[in-house]
Write a structure and sequence with these properties.
The chain has helices spanning 16-24, 29-36, 43-49, 55-67, 89-92, 95-109; strands spanning 41-42, 71-76, 82-87. The chain is α+β, with helices and mostly antiparallel strands. The chain has one domain (16-108): Orthogonal Bundle (Arc Repressor Mutant, subunit A). A 3-stranded antiparallel sheet has the order 1-3-2. The radius of gyration is 19 Å and the shape is globular. The two termini are 24 Å apart. Mean pLDDT is 86; it is low at 119-127.
Length: 127
């Protein structure tokens, strides 16, 4: 049996996995990070790319990511006013997680032409 290396409790104060999951685990968050990986985006662009997100939820997610230092909000004194969001260095550090999610999705969740997921196994009756 292998020796347990993690703490007995997943608390955001002492567990880095729990703390990270607390930030990126909210719905839409990683999709926003993914969208922002291609450069600065306006609110309306992010709203359009995340079909189904409400403006209120998008605003809350962006504000939360800004407070965590993952997203930078830039306001431009133009008429009409323009606001753009972009990843900070800390936000860019999440991109390997996005890449891992993409690989996982391609390998385990992508539907083939028959609509079945690759690598999907049905449990045999003996299990």
């Amino acid at each position: 049996m292998s020796m347990r290396t993690m703490g007995p409790i997943h608390d955001t104060a002492c567990c880095s996995v729990a703390a990270t999951a607390d930030i990126i685990g909210a719905k839409w968050t990683m999709l926003l990070v993914h969208d922002l990986s291609e450069g600065a985006r306006r609110f309306s662009e992010l709203e359009h790319s995340c079909v189904g997100i409400s403006p209120r939820t998008l605003s809350e997610r962006l504000r939360s990511l800004e407070q965590e230092g993952i997203v930078l909000r830039r306001s431009y004194a133009e008429s009409p006013p323009r606001v753009e969001y972009e990843l900070t260095e800390k936000g860019e550090a999440l991109l390997p997680i996005v890449a891992a999610m993409r690989r996982f999705g391609h390998s385990w969740l992508s539907a083939g032409s028959d609509g079945q997921h690759r690598h999907h196994r049905e449990l045999s009756p003996s299990r």
